[in-house]
Amino acid sequence: MALALNAENELLKDLNEPQKEAVLHGDGPLLVLSGAGSGKTRVITRRVAHLVRFRGVFPWRILAVTFTNKAAREMRERLVQLLGPQAHELVVSTFHSSSSMILRRALKDPKLVDHKVAELMGLTPSFVIYDDGDQLQLIKRAMREARVDPIMQPREILHRIDGEKNAARLPDQMVVDVDDARGVVVQKTYHAYQKLLRAANAVDFGDLLLLLVALLRQRPDVLEQYQKRFRHILVDEFQDTNPVQYELLRLLAPPERRPNLVVVGDDDQSIYRWRGASVDNILDFPEHFPGARVVKLEQNYRSDQNILDAAHAVIRRNSRRMPKKLWSDRPKGDNLTLLLNRDERAEAQEVARRIHGLQREGFIKYSGMAVFYRTNAQSRVLEEAMRLARVPYTLVSGRSFYDRAEVRDAAAYLRLMVNPRSDADLLRIINTPARGIGDTTVERLVDFANQSGVSLYEASAAPERIAGLNTAAVRRLSGFHALVSSLHAFAQESQDAASAVDQMLKETHLVESLQTEGSDESMTRAENLREFLGAAQEFDLNRAAAAVAASTVGDGDAAPVPPEEADLDMSPLTADIPPLNAFLEQISLVGDADAEVGEGRVALMTLHAAKGLEFDAVFITGMEDGVFPHSRALHGGESEDGGEEMAEERRLCYVGFTRARRRLFVSLAQCRSLFGELRYNPPSRFLAEVPQELFGIAEQELPPAPKEAPFTKKKRNWADEDDGPRVDRTYSQAAEGEGIGGDVRGMRVRHEQFGMGRIISADGQGPNAKVTVDFGGQVGLKRVIARFLLPG
DNA sequence: GGCTGCGTACAGGGC
DNA sequence: GTACGCAGCC
Q1: Residue A464 annotated to the active site
Q2: For residue A155, what is the domain's CATH number?
Q3: Cα-flanking dihedrals φ and ψ of residue A295, to 5°?
Q4: Nearest DNA or RNA nucleotide to A677 (CA to C1')
Q5: Nucleotides, chain B, CB distance < 7 Å
Q6: Pick from A627, A660, A695: which residue ends a domain?
Q7: How large is the C-alpha radius of gyration of chain A?
Q8: Residues A406 and A523 in one domain
Q9: A439 CB contact with strand C at below 7 Å
Q10: Residue A675 beta carbon within 7 A of nucleic strand C
Q11: Residues A752-775, mean pLDDT to the nearest whole number
C-alpha cells in the first residue's frame, strides 16, 4: 500500500493544482480548458495512467482520441513510459482511425452480416480508403453519371460534399432549396458519388465517421457494445472536432448518463474551421453535458514572457473567446526578432544564416529549431536554402513518401489485392507498367462495366464480350485480369504484409520495368519501391511486437469482468484485421511516420502541422498580408476583427508564436513569387498588433499597418530605400549572398572556392560590390564580387 | 496504342 | 513553378 501511495505521489508530484484536479477528477463529464504550453498532454496521460493504476480501470476500457496521428503517436509513447506494456491495451488513436477499425469489425461480425444499414451496403471488411485524388476522380465520374449541369468545378463540389459529411448529413439529409441550382448539382453528385464509392467497396475520409454514426444510430446492439466497453473517453484538441465527430462522442457517451467524457482543448487554438470544425463544440460543452466540471489551465511552462505577451497581443483582438490569460513565472527572455528581406529567397537564406548563428552560439541545437510557413508552396525555397547552407533539416509534411507516383502505384496494386472492386485503383495501374492497354480499350471496358453494372475487374474477366475490342486487346485484358486475380488469391492466404508486397512486386515487374528504363530518376523510383517493401517488413515487426506485449499483460492480474458483461469484447480494435489490410490502413490514415523523427535536424513545417509541438527557437516566415494572414481571409467581411476567417488566421498566429520557448523570429519579404507572378505584399497585420518594445525597437517604426501598404509600390528595391521604416541591422545582414548593404566590415562570409573568411572592406553596394575578404591561411586576402559570397 | 509537347488551371491546411 | 488534359504525331 505504501508503495502504491508513493507511486501515486510520483504520478502527481510535478503537477500544479488545476492539473491535479483534472487528473483526479472522479466520474462525469469534464472540460479542461488548456492554454498553450499549459501541460495538457501531461494531464491526459497522467489521468489515463491514474485510472489504470489507482482506480482499477482496465486499459481496454479507455478510449483516447486525438486529432492528428502525430499527437496519437506521442501520447502512446508517453503512456508506454508511464504504464509499460499495459499501454498497448489502451485504444489511443485518431477519430478516423478508430472509426475505421470499428467499422471493419462491425462488417466482419457474423451477427451483423445482414446489418440492414443502407449506407453500408456494398462494403466488406476489406474496404479501401480513398484519398483526395481518388475522390476528385470519382466526383468527375459521378458528375458524368448523374448528368449534372457542369456549372460547378469538380473541386468545388467535392468541397461542398465534404462539408455535408462533416456536418453529419447524408445526401437525403441535405437541405437544398429548389431554386438553388448549385445546391441541386451538389446533391445529385453526392448521391451518385456515394453509389460509386459503395460499388468500389471504398470509403472516403468523411465516410469513416459518417457511416459509423449511421451504423450506431441504426443498430442499438452495436452501439451498446461500445458504450459498455469504453467507460472512459478522453478527447484531445476538442476545439477541432466537427459536428459528426461530436455526434459520435454523444452516441458513445450520452450526455444524460453523465458519462466519463473528458475533453481537453483551447478555443484560441481552433484552426480547422475550414474543414468543418466547430468551436461551438467546446464553447457549448457545459450546456450539452449538464453537470460538467470545468478546469482551466492557465500557467504556461513553455515560453518566456515576451513571447507570451506577443501571442496575447495578437489573440486578444479576437472577439469570441473564452476569458483566460496565460501567465508564466519564467523570465522576460530575449526580444522577438524581425527579419525584413527583399524576397523569399533572401528570406530563406537569412533564416538559414540565423539558424547557423544560433547553432554556433551553442545554446540551441538544430533539433531545437523549427521553421514554419503558412502554405506548403513556401517550403521549396526554404528547403533549397537549407541545402545550400548545409543546414540539416526534416520536412515535416506528413506523407511525402507515400505521395510519390511509383509508391502510389504499388499501393494501388495492394488495394486491388484486398479489394479487386476498387475501380479507382484499377484505372490507376491498368497500364502500369505499360502492357498495351490504352485509352480506347479502357474506355470500352468502362462502358461495358457501366452497362452491366459490374466493377471493372469483373468486366475484365470476360473481355471477349466487350464490343469493339480486337483480339490483341482481349488478350491483354485477360492477361491483366489473371494478374489481379492471382494477386487477390495470394492476399487471401498471406500471413503478413511484407510477403504480399513482395509477391506483388514480383508479379507486376514494377521494379524491373523501372530498372530497364535506366535513367537516374527511374533508379531512384525503383529504390523507393524497395523501401516500400522495407516499410511493410517494419510494419510486420511492429505488429508482432505489439501483439506479444499485449498478450503478456493482464494474464495474472486481471480482475473479474462483471458477469453481465462477460461477452464484452476487450480485444484491441486492430486485433482481427488481416496484416495487409492493416498495412494499407496505416498508409491511408497515418502516412509516413518515420519522416517525422528528425534527430539533430531543423524541422520545416506548416503552421498547422506545428500545433502541439514546441521548440527553443521558432522562425515564422512569410509574415505578409496575403500570405499570413492568407489572402482568402483578407476579404472576409467588414466586421471589426475581419470576420471568422481572419479570426482563424489570428489563432493560427497564436499557435505559431506559442510554439517558441526562448527565441521567436518573424520574417517577411517585400516581394515574393506567388502563382508564378511577383507580388508585393504589405507586412502582416499581426506584426503591427505586437507591441514594438517586444522587438526591442523603441524609436524606429515597425512596418506600418497594412492599410497604408507601403511595400505594394511596384519596383521598389531595398537598396534604393531611403525613406520610411527600416531596421538597418537586419537589412544589411539579410542582404548577404544577394549582395551587401550597410556596414559589413568584420562580417563572417563563405566563398565556394576560398572557404570561410572575414570582410575587411567593401567597395560599393548590392550584389556587384567588390569586397576585400581575409580568408586566412594559404588563401589570405582576396577581392571578390559580393554576389559570390554566402552567409558565414 | 503510346508518347511528347504544349496550354491551361492552379496552390489552404490534414484525416 | 507544377499537374493535368488534350492534340498531334509516330
Answers
A1: no
A2: 1.10.10.160
A3: -120, 135
A4: C1
A5: 1-3, 9-15
A6: A695
A7: 29
A8: yes
A9: no
A10: yes
A11: 57
| Distance in angstroms: CA A380, C1' B9 | 21
Which nucleotide is nearest, taking the CA of residue A380 and each C1'?
C1
Using the structure, give the distance in angstroms from the CA atom of A450 to the C1' atom of C9, rounded to a whole number: 32
* pLDDT of residue A166 exceeding 80: yes
Same domain, A774 and A652: no
A158 and A173 assigned to the same domain: yes
Among A345, A415, A659, A662, the one annotated catalytic: A659
Cα angle value A254/A259/A260 (rounded, 5°): 140
CB-strand contact A676/C, under 7 Å:
yes
A460 CA – C10 C1', rounded, Å: 29
The answer to whether A479 is annotated as binding is: no
Interatomic CA distance for residues A740 and A736, integer angstroms? 5
Q: Give A615-671 pLDDT, tens digit per residue.
A: 999 999 999 999 999 998 887 654 555 688 899 999 999 999 999 999 999 999 999
Paired with A667 in beta bridges are: A339
Q: Which of A210, A732, A60, A126 is nearest to A415 (CA)?
A: A126
In this structure, the answer to whether residues A406 and A352 fall within a common structural domain is no
Closest residue, CA to C1' of B14? A68
A665 three-state secondary structure:
strand
Q: Are residues A137 and A155 located together in one domain of the fold?
A: yes
Query: Both A193 and A223 in a single domain?
Result: no
pTM comes to 0.84
| Buried-state track A554-570, b at ≥16 Cβ within 10 A, e below 16 | beeeeeeeeeeeeeeee
Mean pLDDT throughout A698-727?
A: 38
Burial of A17 (0-12, 13-18, 19+ CB in 10 A): exposed
Our count of domains for chain A comes to 5
> Does A75 reside within a domain?
yes
Tell me what pLDDT residue A320 has.
83
pLDDT digits (tens, 9 = 90+) for A474-519: 999 999 999 999 999 999 999 999 999 999 999 999 998 888 877 7
A569 against A564, higher pLDDT: A569
A438 touches strand C (CB under 7 A): no
Give A769's pLDDT tier (boundaries 50, 70, 90): low
Residue A279: what pLDDT? 86
Indicate the average pLDDT of chain A. 85
pLDDT of residue A561: 65
Any strand C atom closer than 7 Å to A150 CB: no
Structural domain boundaries enclosing A774: 747-791
